Amino acid sequence: MSTTAADTAAADEPARPRRGRPVGRVQRVSMADVARLAGVSSQTVSRVSNGHAGVVESTRQQVLDAMVQLGYRPNSAARALRSGRFRTIGVILFSLSTTGNVRTLEAVATSAAAHGYAITILPVEAPTEGDVRGAFTRLGELAVDAVVLLMEVHLLDAANLTLPTGVPVVVADSDADERYPVVDTDQADGSRTAVQHLLSLGHRTVVHLAGPAESFASQRREDAWRRTLQEAGREVPAPYRGDWSAQSGYDVGREIARTDATAVFVANDQMALGLLRALAEAGRDVPGDVSVVGFDDLPDAVAFRPPLTTIHQDFAEVGRRCVELVLRRLADGGSDGEHGATLVPTRLVERASTAPPPA
Questions:
Q1: What is the pTM of this model?
Q2: Phi first, then psi: what are they for 309, rounded to 5°?
Q3: Which CATH class is domain 85-182+315-340?
Q4: SS3 of 9, please?
Q5: Which residue has the higher pLDDT, 191 or 160?
């Protein structure tokens, strides 16, 4: 199909208001407009717009150039009606204040984009059943194909919570693997490795600075710390508790600094940062007097003073597996048959904050 000079000139001009319409409303550029300017059929424009293979590269580029020149935007709603897919994944989460949620969300977005999907984020005000159900309702109105649920609290542990049916759901960081597909870091193995590392250096026992009691990850790490000490036949001190923040680590750290503790396993790196400050202010050397192990392996952990020994979490892999699993469920027609937990391994990163106890 060829174009005339008049066709090209008309296509080059910006859309003008039609007579009888309010000023300010312009005619939407159509697929036919793009086809005329590119000198191809509307079917070819459609194939390029939908990313189909089989279009000659020079023709594809010609169509893309015409789209840019005309400011053409594909009608995603109409495309969704034809295909039954919106190519959007909804993400419901309670908080963006924690390292785990932020980095997992980033990984979900990156992985979704690599598969040609966008994400719609919907935070909930409180981790209650009603708020989660309300979030699902709003996501339904926003038209998503599937949902990834990032919930750091025990909300999904409640037996009376049943998520709405009709949309594939994958849960991250929750003890709900008997009812929903779950992707999580291997919290227990990471905590076990941290405690065993400190015991192997010769420390008699290990004090634990835990996260919030309502956090699933915090509870998993605390349980594994306690179990590892019990299996080794060591004293299990009463745990301390913070709220994941460096300030809470500092506040609790001032109490720990007044004890004779020689080793501390901290449930995340941010609280470990506050603990290091409290120990330094109390004149307790790290690692000469007290060894400290964190959990997360933040990018800044290597710049702590001293550089922090910690448990590395692969947030990118957690996000990738969430997207992979939810897309697999979409391909299977949203089947509910695939439940259980997918655990992403952790590893110990040894730096300068751990050493044998003082003589």
A1: 0.74
A2: -70, 135
A3: alpha beta
A4: helix
A5: 191
If one counts every other C-beta atom within 10 angstroms of the C-beta of residue 199, the result is 17
Residue 85 has what pLDDT? 66
**Which of 268, 186, 195 is CA-nearest to residue 231?**
195
Nearest residue to 175 via CA among 125, 135, 220: 220
Verify cis geometry, omega within 30 degrees of 0, for the bond prior to 127. no
Q: How confident is the model at residue 350 (pLDDT cuts 50, 70, 90)?
A: very high
Among candidates 189, 150, 191, 194, which has minimal Cα distance to 318? Answer: 150
* Residue owning tokens 């020149």: 69
The CATH superfamily of 187-314 is: Response regulator (3.40.50.2300)
Q: 7 is written with which tokens? A: 């066709």
Overall CATH class of domain 5-74: mainly alpha
DSSP string, 19-77: TTSPTT--PPPPHHHHHHHHTS-HHHHHHHHTT-S-S-HHHHHHHHHHHHHHT----HH
Least confident of 51-60, 68-77, 340-349: 68-77
CA atoms within 13 A on the CB side of 94: 23
Q: How far apart are CA 152 and CA 136, in angstroms?
A: 17
Q: What is the DSSP string of 199-221?
A: HHTT-S--EEEE--TTBHHHHHH
Residue range 216-245, pLDDT digits in tens: 899 999 999 999 999 999 999 999 999 999
For the stretch 29-64, pLDDT in tens is 888 888 999 999 988 888 887 666 678 889 988 988
Domain ranges of the chain: 5-74, 85-182+315-340, 187-314
pLDDT digits (tens, 9 = 90+) for 108-143: 999 999 988 999 988 887 666 677 777 767 766 667
Same fold, 5-74 and 85-182+315-340: no
